[in-house]
Amino acid sequence: MPIHDQSYRRYGGARQPAQRAWLVIAKSGINQFLRKRPMIGILFGSQIALMVRLVSFYLAESITQAQSLLGPSAKVFRDFLEQQNFFVFLLAVYVGSGLIAQDRKANALQIYLSKPLTRLDYIAGKMTILATFLLFATWLPAMLLLIGQILLSGSFEFARTNIILFPAITVFSFVEVFIVCCAVLALSSLTTSTRYVAVMFAGVMFFSDAIFGTLRMVTGSTAVSWVSFTGSLAQVGDAIFRQPLRYTTPVAVSFIVLAALVAVSLSVLERRVRGVEVVA
Amino acid sequence: MTEVSENEPGPGEPRISQQPPMSVATDSPPVPTATEASAPGPRPGVPAGAAVTLDNVTVEYGKNRALADVSAVFPVGAVGLLGPNGAGKSTMIKALLGFIAPAKGRMQVLGLDVTTKPQEIRSRVGYMPESDGHIPGMNAVSFVAYCGELSGLPAVDSMQRAHEVLYYVGLGEARYREIGTYSTGMKQRIKLAQALVHDPDLLFLDEPTNGMDPKGRDEMLELIRDLAHNKGVSLILSSHLLPDVEYTCDHLIVLDKGRIATSGRIGELKGPAGSIFELRIKGDPDAFVAVLQANGLECHATDEDVMRVFVPGGKSARDVFALAAQHGVQVRHLRPSVPTLEDVFAKAVGQE
User: Fold this and answer.
1) DSSP secondary structure string for all residues of chain A
2) Interface test mutation site (partner A, options B23, B97, B127, B150, max chain A beta carbons within 10 A)
3) What is the pLDDT of residues A182-237, one digit of tens each?
4) Residue of A nearest to B148 (CA)
5) What's B18-265's CATH class?
6) CATH class of B271-351
7) Which residue of A236, A276, B58, B313 lies most exposed, with the fewest beta carbons within 10 A?
8) Which of A4, A18, A275 has the CB atom closest to B123's CB atom?
């Protein structure tokens, strides 16, 4: 039978509103990653610190002498989120580095953007993929830790006296995840090589830290922490959790640095995510 | 460990019969029968006259003008967009899709303004790009279904139509293979499938037979012809291959250096007043071409020393013989010829 005699028929069914395209991209991307074994390993590993902290809370509730050492405090939650930065880095590299780079390599952008979706939908979809996994490693375990503390202690006393923790965990996690998503996606849009994106992201993290370390040694002051991405994030995090600031840099300066990083990243994305690449 | 055939569905994918399904199951409006669905003619919502209109459109890449004050009307049906490399064909399609903003001018697709309603347009058109493109990490059926979902189809319907269109384009047996393992011809077919999955009213096909072997090329052209003439899908076929356009299209727009060189129905363009002759001479062909052109006879050389001479109305083959005799050129072969699209193209581009 000639090929053209086989079926091609009109579609008479319903169509979804075009605004849902970002959700389609996010759903498909998340499902693709969840089929990978290393991904399951990383997600499982990101919950180990939660288990350890819950055990320490249990011990603190069971053994009075351990209360001061292992007991909950706002600082414990701040430290917990800082420990999770390792998994934030790992997930950003594993998930984020290929999100746009691989699409560029496979010429998929022209396919995506020929569908009824905007560039914003595309970026939002890709960002949702990464943000979902990052929140799984930050916000979710931190909230579970807080809920676990309430359940283990059998009282709301700690939660009531530290009511700031609920919004603080949420705000800090979302700020961190948003900044990391913007930075990684911007780097991913710059090249077609996933490895190169990973190296560039590691470079941004570690090189800025190294510069801060050097300047700190030379000047003897921590006021230059704004040159470091992680330093600025830590400073803003301390302020959100109402903890003593670790550096002498004004929080506003650290915040402006992070805002500038987001602005640059969004500008890069605006230029690079296009249906056609114009080299004038 | 069990071995899985490349034609077996992957995890999470429904097992579909090897035969193309005969009906689309949806919980919304009744689905037309296959006969109704395949009926040719303009589709509802498609303007009767023009599928695409361009009004003084200029597109610039930096200082280079890719399209210069182009005004054109693409009628409903199959329209060939013909031109040499760099003529602005792909640029025009990308501008119509909203990828490139024109420096000036207005464009309408299916009666909708490209500047104000790009998403609505893209939900009703399918685009088959010139270069290879796919979503990484997906097999063919997942990729096509994903494209359907992106175009607004529900997930179940997308998957069902993905199977159907993959059969239609001849990839039914290879639909569970990773696209990265496909041959060039198969990649062309998968690009057509992703452009068709959401049942567009208008197709933009950018060099659809690039890199295909003769058999694959014939099949692709057959599909395009079928879509345009039996399935009621309007299409714009961008190509520099004259036979492809001649076989599949009814209308033609010739672009050259960013301008419209000629346009019209192919039958009319191929039948100018006058006649065409194949001519072979003994002597200096270049000098004789100049002589013919100086005497108002369009002429261009083809392969194997054969020239094609356009003799306008009021003149005849005798004039060619007379000129040859005058300039001491021996005519070895003079035969009336059927006008081809190549003549139209050569004449249009030559005039520019």
Assistant:
1) --GGGS------S----GGGHHHHHHHHHHHHHHT-HHHHHHHHHTTHHHHHHHHHHHHHHH-GGGHHHH---HHHHHHHHHHTHHHHHHHIIIIITTTTHHHHHTTHHHHHHTSS--HHHHHHHHHHHHHHHHHHHTHHHHHHHHHHHHHHHTSSHHHHHTTTHHHHHHHHHHHHHHHHHHHHHHHHHT-S-HHHHHHHHHHHHHHHHHHHHHHHHHHS-SGGGGG-HHHHHHHHHHHHTTPPPSSSS-HHHHHHHHHHHHHHHHHHHHHH--SS----
2) B150
3) 999 999 999 999 999 999 999 999 999 999 999 999 999 999 999 999 999 999 99
4) A115
5) alpha beta
6) alpha beta
7) B313
8) A18
